[in-house]
Amino acid sequence: MDRVMEFAETVAMRSRRTAARLKDAVYRGIEKTLDEGLEIERAHIVEMLKSDDYKEGLTAFAERRQPVFD
């Protein structure tokens, strides 16, 4: 149970958009083939790489500060 809580806390620190995409990938991919699941993940990654949250995460990392997500 401690590992589950640790994972949940890690997800909660991320952007809401990223957490939502992670949850969607898990729910949609759970009964899919590996290739179908990977395609769901790929689509989410492509979408997230274009997001303001991604840019903020990179900027915050470069500036050695915590990101501030919308």
UniProtKB/TrEMBL annotation:
Lineage top rank: taxon: Eukaryota
Descriptive protein name: Enoyl-CoA hydratase, mitochondrial
Pfam families from the UniProt entry: ECH_1 (PF00378)
GO MF annotation terms: enoyl-CoA hydratase activity
InterPro entries noted in UniProt: ClpP/crotonase-like_dom_sf (IPR029045), Enoyl-CoA_hydra/iso (IPR001753), Enoyl-CoA_hydra_C (IPR014748)
UniProt KW keywords: Lyase
Similarity comment text for this entry: Belongs to the enoyl-CoA hydratase/isomerase family.
Lineage of the organism: Eukaryota, Metazoa, Porifera, Demospongiae, Heteroscleromorpha
